[in-house]
DNA sequence: CTGAAAGCGCTTACAG
DNA sequence: CTGAAAGCGCTTACAG
């Protein structure tokens, strides 16, 4: 932000400001761990105040577009695809390059984060965007120590760690979906959620519970199953739900992919949708328009989420302080053809 | 290629080999002009012989996965999406990172290629993959001079320039599509092709012509319109074809996107497909299964094309000499529901 | 955990 | 045009 911009700051300048020696600054820059937390903090502050860039970074920057890393799980489904589209849209505007690494969220756990973060630093990468990934505090530390901004879109984490994240109003979305089903006359409504502890799924479920509670409809544990956002879980979850003595008349799926699985299994069991079973998805991806019947779903502004994530990374890289560690964009329930009054109430 | 690989060559090593001082090598590296042509040549030869890399380059390269640049036009349609999927598949196997630049094929013409190639060099990029782009000899030269391998998937070029390219058996595909329509009894068959001069589209058209000729069906100039592979052109092209006194009974579209446009315009004019108009697409992307009726199409192995392109770039970067400048993978006609006998012949 | 000292590799300023 | 000398900025090895 402030002041001291006379000349390009060099390592010695930073050392002077921080009141340490040049070797110590060098260690901080290279992410070595033989530096005390207090000293490291002072050096980081000095680096930030002076806006120090290493020769590598300066060179990488002066010689062309900046790079931002992206970890995204394939582009087989619409969810990551739309997020990627949003990111690339903004990348074109901001003139940055997006690096698709070969580390998928599944491999995130096992990857050597120290090495990876170091590589990012040395290649002059501006920051990192993770899409639906789980990040541990320790992993985050590798990037934090090197001043590499990280933003997660819909983290699969229990909400903590001080992760900077972008998502949508999951709670409100879950509530809207459930209220819609209640309005249609449903009372036996099930929720098929994502990975245990995933912030976004938990919020959706709480929105669902809030809607039930507001109408005085008791929630039932057997109607709430959470495991993953996959198609496959939609199939298995539905099989379990339909095997109950007191079958639900409506299913609220935590993702559109899961809803597709529900659709598949319901069809296999000879149930018509929406006549015999109402179904609401979550995400609002293009598939909702391609299924038969078209899928009622809570739309997330996925492209916008991608754009915002990249913008946030770039802001952090510029030393700006974000207003909030968490950005939530509005969801919107889009009613299509997969929901109707339950059989008993039909005209 | 040869010999002298004991240790990482440093600037002084190069100077020794060239019989000059370190400052002189530095000048050559930095493009300064106070070096005689003869000395410069000697230094350049030494640089090449030793495979000298600047610290920046060495660092970028040795510290992690290699990078390959990719220029692809959005991911809105299935074509680039599937190619990208194939590239990323192989990237994961080969352990390389894919850099999605902000240069889309449309901007390729205007971009400063010298600067871009220089940036690639300095960032340690291994090579460049272009998807359905047009490349001029002059542009290619910028990369060639820096020893940066370039591979184009389905180039939109007149076939020359010695471009290394990957594609599919377009001629055979065009022939197969047309033979299928002829077999059904069609004689008035139109072709809606891609950009004028695009190698792949021209080959498809020649396959079409070859099939007509083999059956003694005369070709008609008014039945052959080439402009682009877009949806929009499918609409406009169809409007023009259906305005002819002697309407075609079948349309062979140069891409699935174009076929979608044909479908849209035919529907708008109240024509049923395949009863009133038969339609064959090209690409065999997922959309062919999602339209109503499902689209008969010549499938290209798009993922495989992506994989092969990346593999070729990496081979070239390793100094391997490719067997052939052009790789063609097999196409396959997949018959679905958009083709039938012409109205006059129907049962 | 810290830094004085030595070192590395490249670049600059300047004398010839 | 060329290079000995000085310099720059960062890193390494090691003593405390």
Automatic annotation (TrEMBL), chains A, B:
Pfam families: LacI (PF00356), Peripla_BP_3 (PF13377). PROSITE patterns: HTH_LACI_2 (PS50932). CDD domains: HTH_LacI. Keywords: DNA-binding, Transcription, Transcription regulation. The keyword Transcription applies. Residues 9-63 form the HTH lacI-type domain. This is LacI family transcriptional regulator. It comes from Arthrobacter stackebrandtii. The lineage of its organism: Bacteria, Bacillati, Actinomycetota, Actinomycetes, Micrococcales.
